[in-house]
Structures are given as C-alpha cells and as structure tokens.
Write a structure and sequence with these properties.
The protein is α/β, with parallel strands linked by helices and 399 residues long. It has helices spanning 25-38, 79-85, 113-120, 122-136, 144-147, 153-175, 184-188, 214-222, 263-266, 311-315, 348-359, 381-397; strands at 2-5, 18-21, 42-45, 57-59, 65-67, 74-76, 98-102, 105-109, 140-142, 192-194, 206-208, 227-231, 239-241, 246-248, 251-252, 256-259, 276-286, 296-299, 307-310, 323-332, 343-344, 367-369. 31% of the residues lie in helices and 23% in strands. The strands form six sheets. It has a seven-stranded mixed sheet. The chain has a six-stranded parallel sheet with strand order 1-12-3-2-16-22, with helices on one face. It has a three-stranded antiparallel sheet with strand order 13-14-15, with no helix packed on it. The structure holds flavin-adenine dinucleotide and uridine-5'-diphosphate. Uridine-5'-diphosphate binds at residues 100, 109, 166-167, 170-171, 174-175, 186-187, 189-190, 298, 300.
C-alpha cells in the first residue's frame, strides 16, 4: 500500500482496475477484496486527510485515544463479518455498558431487570419483571413501541415510565421529533431487555474494541501491494457521470467504481438535498482519573446534549491523572457547507428522493454505490461490512 496526499499531476485512472471512493468500511473492505480475489490494482480516493471514515481514531493532545466522529463500539451477530475483520485486528473483550442519567439517578440502558427495580423499588420492580417475563419470555428484547401497545395497566405503567424517561426527551434531542414520528426501527435499536444482561448490545456474540484502535485496523486492511490510497482528493473534481458513461480525469473510465459518498452530492443536489442529522462533538480533557463509571452515559431527561462518552472507559487505556470526554449535540445537517452528514432520516419522502438519485446510476453497470451514505441507510459498522462483502462477492463473480 502507498498513501499519498493529493493526486499526482500524471494520475491515470485507467492504470487502475478499480477506483474506490471513500476509505471507510465500505470502501476499504471492497478495495481489499478486489485486490486479493481479482488481483485488481485499486486506487482509493478519500477526501479527508485520513483513512477509516467515521471510525477514525487518533491520540489527542493529552495522549488519549479518542474517536473523532463519535463513539464506535464494535459488535456483531454476523460470523462472516467477524471472521473477515478479525484478519486485520485483535479485539479487546470490552463489553459496552450505558447508563441513563435520570435526574441524577443512573440506570442501565437498555432498560432491564435491574433498571426496573431501580425505577419502581425492589418489590414492585420484581413483580413487574415477573409480569414481563410471563408476557414476553425470559431474555427477550421488546421494542418500546411494542410494549406501549400492551393492553394491561401494569405493563402500561412500565411502558409509560420507559417512554417518558428513556426515549422521549433523548429522541427529541437526537432527531427533533418524538419517537412516534420517526422510523420505528430506530427505537428498535435499543429495546427493553427482559433479563439481567446489562450490556448495550445484549446477546451480541462478538463485541469489543480493536486492540490497537480503528485506524490501525484500517491500515492493516488497506495494506496490500495492489492498493494505493490518495487522501485529500474529492472525487467530484475528477469524475463525472452521465446516463451510460463514467468519465475520470476527462476520459471514459471502464473499470469498476465503488462509490461510498452521498449520491445527491455527486449530482450537485439537483433533485434536492437528502436530509440528515449532524452532530457537534465537543471534546474536553479533565485533570482527573475518571469522569463516569461506564463508557457512555445517556442524558435521557435533561441537558441539551444527548450523551457523554469517556474514551478511556472503552479502550481500557491507562493514563493517570487525565481523561478525555465528549458531549454530542445533535442538529439538522446543512447540505453543501462541509458538515458531516451523520444520521440518515429514514422516512418515505427521503427514501423516494434517494431512489430518484439511485435510478440515475442504475444503467451504469460499473458504478456501485455502497455504504452508509451511498445507500442512505442507518448502518452499523458490521452492517456496512456485510454490504461491502456482498457487493465484492458480486463483482468478483463477474471477473
Ligand atoms: P464512512 O465511514 O462515512 O466513509 C465514507 C468515506 O467516503 C468518508 O471517509 C468520506 O470522507 C468519503 N467520501 C465521501 N464523499 C467523497 C468524495 N466526493 N470524494 C472522496 N471521498 C469521499 N457503528 C457501530 O457498529 N458501532 C458504533 O458504536 C457506532 N457508533 C456510531 C456513532 C456515531 C455518532 C455515528 C454517526 C455512527 C456510528 N456508527 C457505529 C456507524 C459507523 O460509523 C458506520 O456504519 C460506518 O462508519 C460507515 O462506513 P461507510 O464506509 O459506509 O461510511
Ligand atoms: N434512544 C433513546 N434513549 C436512549 C438510547 C437511545 O431515546 O437512552 C433512541 C434515540 O432515538 C436514538 C435511538 O434510540 O437515536 C438509537 O439509539 P442508538 O444508541 O442505537 O443510537 P446511535 O448509537 O446510533 O447514535
């Protein structure tokens, strides 16, 4: 692998079998697979000055490993994804735990057996728990929107408490809308857990953090003789699409193009901009060993930020006398202003607009949109990796 800042004057796209736009999971996984399986020479073009996309981590001025674009915790149910990524990193056995700060009281999220007892008292909490077990079964995940539909006064009491104290205000801060107004799948990401597992991802068989960080994982993933990485390159400066042809550096390009950026941006937003939420991440280094008991504390009823993450609690890094924390402030994303489009807003209008853009690349058989931006999907790292593995399977099968 070589990593170059900017494109050389004599850059010739047609010396590469594939151009990969974006060095996040979607792009890096495809680059690696095409290099390995097809002996493709691959150029990865990334507009940021670093690899790893939104999973990028680095050591801050205090020497603490932090995640620039928000806390990233690896977890998956998918054995293929896990086996693939495990070629490029070892994992720590970190198990992510989150507490909700409810007027100063700290309660496990997802809301579980212990949370019930903290919220309703030992005896009543236990009775309510037994009722939940009798209704849904032990060790079951129940989305809050399903729990709210139960026609039983005790279960309604639980649902009302959880809705009001865990979901309503946090969701208003994160999305500017109530839970009823957004895609139910978003609430379903953090179901009530009827059991004692107090991990944020209960039952996920593979979880942890890459032992030397995410950026190192990506260095290893991209470290292949046939892969060249070019940073600080916005592909819109060199690539144009029409209905049937891709032009790169003013010449038709016939190799494979893996595109992991936003489709509306590629077309100059000419059908309108796809909406997103962005997040202002505010970092602070404090002169103390530890700030909070777990990796992340969600502020579910107060404050105007959603959550505070303390990185040392996730990475296990030992740095005495200082710690770096980060607060997340969510707001509407302004297109074309250089902001980061973090969260897609999955509603019928936005999906229709996305499909409009998508239809414009349908006839370009060598153009492959993949990933969180290009597919306009709320993906976790494992979901993106799975999508990239499947796309590369498909391309490999045709070569
Ligand atoms: P990205 O990582 O966004 O990579 C796309 C790359 O393409 C970017 O580097 C971008 O600069 C580049 N690019 C775009 N346009 C162009 C262009 N025109 N020219 C050149 N380059 C371009 N997932 C988890 O599994 N666990 C978590 O705990 C977790 N936490 C998260 C927290 C936050 C706050 C957010 C926002 C996401 C989190 N995720 C988490 C999701 C995770 O970040 C994504 O699933 C993953 O990073 C997406 O990878 P990607 O390659 O699709 O996109
Ligand atoms: N959520 C909430 N309260 C919480 C945790 C999550 O209301 O304590 C809702 C909120 O709408 C959030 C969604 O559930 O956007 C998904 O949460 P998750 O932690 O998966 O979000 P991410 O880590 O992707 O930001």
């Amino acid at each position: 692998m070589s990593i170059t800042q900017g494109l050389p004057q004599d850059f010739k796209p047609d010396t590469y079998d594939a151009l990969v736009i974006g060095a996040g999971y979607a792009g890096a996984v495809c680059a690696r697979r095409l290099a390995e399986a097809c002996n493709f020479k691959v150029a990865v073009l990334e507009r940021r000055n670093h690899i790893a996309g939104n999973a990028y981590d680095y050591y801050d001025e205090a020497g603490i490993l932090v995640h620039k674009y928000g806390p990233h915790i690896y977890h998956t149910y998918n054995d293929r994804v896990h086996t693939f990524l495990s070629r490029f990193t070892e994992w720590t056995d970190y198990q992510h735990k989150v507490l909700a700060n409810i007027h100063g009281a700290l309660m496990p999220v997802p809301f579980n057996h212990q949370s019930l007892k903290l919220a309703f008292g030992e005896e009543k909490g236990e009775n309510l728990y037994q009722k939940l077990v009798a209704t849904f079964g032990q060790d079951k995940k129940v989305p809050i929107m399903d729990l709210r539909e139960q026609d039983d006064s005790e279960l309604e009491e639980v649902a009302d408490y959880v809705y009001e104290n865990i979901f309503l205000h946090y969701t208003m801060k994160q999305w500017g809308k109530t839970p009823d107004e957004i895609d139910p799948a978003v609430m379903g990401r953090v179901p009530v857990f009827i059991g004692d597992d107090d991990r944020y991802f209960p039952q996920a068989p593979h979880q942890g953090m890459p032992k030397e960080g995410y950026t190192r994982l990506f260095e290893n993933l991209l470290n292949h003789d046939l892969i060249d990485v070019y940073l600080n390159v916005d592909v819109r400066d060199i690539m144009k699409l029409n209905d049937t042809t891709i032009t790169a550096c003013d010449k038709p390009y016939g190799g494979e193009v893996i595109y992991t950026g936003a489709l509306d941006e590629l077309f100059g937003f000419d059908e309108g901009a796809l909406p997103y939420r962005t997040v202002d991440m505010v970092f602070e280094t404090l002169p103390i060993d530890h700030f909070q008991p777990v990796g992340t504390v969600n502020y579910t009823v107060s404050e105007n930020f959603t959550r505070i993450t303390e990185f040392k609690n996730m990475t296990g890094q030992v740095v005495p006398g200082k710690t770096t924390i980060m607060r997340e402030y969510s707001r509407a994303y302004l297109p074309g202003m250089g902001e980061t489009p973090y969260y897609v807003i999955n509603d019928p209008d936005n999906i229709a607009l996305y499909k409009c853009y998508r239809s414009r690349v349908e006839k370009l058989v060598n153009f492959h949109p993949v990933g969180r931006l290009a597919e306009y999907r709320y993906y976790d790292m494992d979901g993106v990796t799975e999508s990239a593995l499947e796309l590369s399977d498909d391309i490999i099968s045709h070569h």
